[in-house]
## 1
Amino acid sequence: MISGFIPVWAVTALGWAAGRSGVLGPHAQPVLGRFAFTFGMPALLFLTLSTTPVGEIADSGVAAFAIGLLTVFGAGLLLSGTVFRMRPADRAVDAMTASYVNSANLGIPVAVSVLGDTTFIAAAAVFQMLFVTPLIMVLIDLDVHRGVRGQWRRFALLPFRNPVIAASAAGVAVSALGWRLPAEVVQPIRTVGGAGVPAALFALGMSLNTRVSLDAKGVGERLALVALKVAAQPLLAYAIGRWVFGSAGTRCSPWCCAPGCRPRRTPSSTRASTGCGPTWPGTW
């Protein structure tokens, strides 16, 4: 398993070195990140989901992952509101930070290198992109744009504004309809999707040079959310998979490892860079 992580670490380290030296210029990291989010990962997710039977997407493993995610999401909302006294939009960002899995930019590269199979991580991405991401964006939008006209129209257009959501929905639809895409269509999509993994890892490495200054409250907030992310959520997913769905051994490992693929941005830097606006997933 360790050998599967070596390519991930190597490409990420190259990205860190490039960001540290500045050889690619100051705008390389956001450009690579946008390419991965807008083109690379949507292409890879679409191909994976369009060739995965719908029955394999909706299995007990995804159910255990989903229950664990929603439980921790709720705990993050509660903690952010009662302990850290955040405004509603910031509560949504904190809850997302505590529970949301980086299933695309980090989860897919890890799944490809370590597991050799993207079925589970793609199913996790579908759940997040089609259900959790809209929920988070609605919570943010209801606070930031309270009383603004056209709010529900923006909600309705959400799948078309987010390429990962749109690609995931399209892939599930193709699979459900039993369509088989011609090679002339698949090959260009596969080529772009193949570039998404290295671009995402390289951009991740470059982003590790960024530093955010936090006050005492920010440090406490970060520690609490990290504890939910790296400890509570994997343990909860394991417990649900083991004792609710009756799986044991290595079958539980993807459900427990997936929550560890945390988002790259901290809650503080996410709020600073987006102002809690409704387009934050585009920077993920």
## 2
Amino acid sequence: MDWAILALLSAAIFGLVSILDKYIVDHLSRNTRSILFIMGVFGVLICIPFFIADPSYSSYSLRAIGAAVASGLIRGLSLAILFWVLRKEEVSRALPVTQTYPIFVAILAALFLNEQVGVLDWVAIVVIVAGAVLLSARRTPGALGGFLGSSFFLLTLSSLAVGASNFLGKDALSEMSTVQVFTINFFAVGVAILSVSTSRDSVREAWAIVRNRPPNLVLFAADTLMALVGSYLLFASFVAGPVSGASALNATRPLFVFIFVVVGSRLTPRLVYELLTPRILALKLTAIAMIVGGTAALVVR
């Protein structure tokens, strides 16, 4: 399957993950550490059967295994930073900054993987990133504009971490299979999340969430499985094509979130809803045009 299709499918699945994550946080618990703890446990447990089924990991070089592990740990660190910032800042102001990671991926790929990133490729990547940021951004009435202070630096660090994670994943794929790399990556993400979310209070509340309403396990299982599939498709796109281009297309997640929210607002307004004024709609359509145009330029290069 073409690398661009794989990257876009991954973005679409992660768009569903984003919506489900929001539902979980809004309806199950406002304590993000307890939510992260449950997701970390699921992430670690779901990888165990993959390790058992494939005993060949020890045959690979420490460099490849180290790159795969580092990719997951760094991605987990980026999530931890993002959730820490979201405790202090508005989601609508924080998330757009994290959509800049394809630029870092392109720089690393050009420097260390000898990927040929031409002028038109750079223009397409920047246009996609700008469209994703514009589509993610929202203006809250009465909110102050400007930078986010120290949080802006942390969010940029989170974005850089995602870029480094994609770069290291691509490097590990030069020796290991897609399933092996994404399994190690996903396991390491779970470990990283558990390392920053495990506490007496988070474990107690996580147990209460599961014990009082066992059906909640279905939501967490679905969230983890979708993230697993999305991760596999992302790494498969790295194998099939340039990591810089695949990362840029994967950054179109806000586009799919917007589409799913619009459809959900019509079909299930109690679960998913977003107010779309003419001004907001015009802004988002502009962003969509930028994303589609940049995507087309990358795909046909």
## 3
Amino acid sequence: MRSGKSAENIRPRVRNRSHYFRQLWADVHSLYEIAIGRPRSYRPSVLPNPIFYKQAFSFLKEGILLLLMRRKRTTLLRYKPTYNEDGLFTNHNCDFIDDPLFKEAYELGFATGSAKGWHARWRVYTACWLADRATRMDGDFVECGTNKGLTARAIAHYTNFGSLNKKFYLVDTFSGLVPEYESKSERQRENPTLIYEECFEEVKQTFSEFNNVVICRGSIPDILSSIPVANICFLHIDLNNALPEMAAGNHFWERVVPHGAILLDDYAYPGYDEQKVAWDHFAEDKGLQILSLPTGQGLILKPS
């Protein structure tokens, strides 16, 4: 402190040490709240000198940020996010969220209850974008792992699928995962979104307005040979288990048209490592690389 007057202002309060330290703690706590970004008005009790306050605030703020980063091994981002859902936090432009067509499509998909209240707009938008791209290609749509229809219903609206000369095959048990197709580690996952209920009748009602949506009930791989699709321009795989996903990938690969898209919902998502490893081997055998997306998805574009 450069001013003796400032020291005199503080010195009388030090005589009652317990009172002084209570007030000092209140000052430090207020500075901490401000430093971590919480809105708070600050009226100093024992740090009245403006220069001292400014120096103390700057020092404390940097110290707190450094301490938090070291303890939590994280980086504190000093900006307001434009998107913070589904494990994706960013300040990048995401104005697609406000696009009227996408908003309608997403709301229809979310209303199915498939996501159990968990929002994943960027993930669904990625699927919608690829599906729209596929409308200008030869072939049909296939989704392996529909549950109640979040993504499929959004796609159907976004692409105006009822007007297309295509089929959309929705393949699922519509009652949850099949235990015999789960590995030991997959069965041990604790994820509330992996708790399913019987929904076949709900799904039929959800897609009742679409004459070209074909609902195929059965487990994969058992049902694959009965799905009458010759060419596929968009394949969405979201089965949560490696064995049925690889069965679907191997079965449908030759039917995917050149430049057709295979969207893997769980590829880079935490807790689904077995699927990622299996798909990486699949891609390596084909001489391809899977594009890992920040949404947790993976993308394969079939070469010509």
## 4
Amino acid sequence: MPQVADPDIAGLVRSEVENRWPDGVSDLDEIARYGLVPFGKMMGPWLLVRSSLAVGGELEPVLPAAVAVECVQVGAMMHDDIIDDDPQRRSKPAAYSVFGRSAATVGGDGLFFHGFAALSECQEAGVPATRVSRALGVLAHTGLRIGNAALKEVRMSHRICSTAAYFDMIRDKSGALLWMACGLGATLSGADQRHAEALGEYSDLLGIGYQIRDDLMAYDGTRAGKPNVSDIRNSRPTLPVLLAHRDASPEHQHRIERILADTTSPIADRREAMTELVHEYGAVRSARETSHDYARLAAKALDPLPPSEHKNALIDLTVPGNLA
């Protein structure tokens, strides 16, 4: 996915991060900086700021929260890389490859707590204490959603599941991270219930569309700074696989099931076999169309928000070319 943060927002958040974790820090902060720098898409901070401004908020008071969402997202990715045994992230070695699994696990935990600490600073920046308190609840609930999704994904591996179970899992896997950003922006800026719910629905739907697009990378040749064989290696039943299985002949259904259950054949062989089946049944095209459908639903969810350039920016993110 392309960089979505405009230069002003990106520059402000980067400056905040550099001030907190300057070059040369040690111990836990060294691992935090390694995960945060160089910066990724900055999608979370961008969504938080745009959501805040779309409901009448101001930029400066929510900047610490923008740092918080980046911390939580990077911490979650550190843990994902360990669980999935993915050696690369953001076109560089994953944190566990550099610091070891135990240290990277602690580093990810540390980033979560850095997120809570940064969010609490919004009160000093002028946000009412009651809003900060509610925002801390949003952040905590996000962590529970992410953890629940991670456990579901591990348990779903090596077998076919229903598409309903898959969508339920990815709503929390990726939707929760976007929900965190939009929810914090809305909560800290005093959004009314109708606008907050609209942003919540938008972020969940956009997260589903984004995750489907991410899952397609194993089969359409796209690379995004991390291995595109992770889902194959970990036997994940992603949407392209589930759609191919649904439409396949009984013989090919059994073949897909055997590939998912296989943990000993070379990864390249498994990827080649699954890619052939996914393309044979048009599952890449179907999954991409489903991703676009969810993006369109996300845009529609923003209808209750008042007209503004910030609402338009959130809608622009749902355009298929931007989601891809």
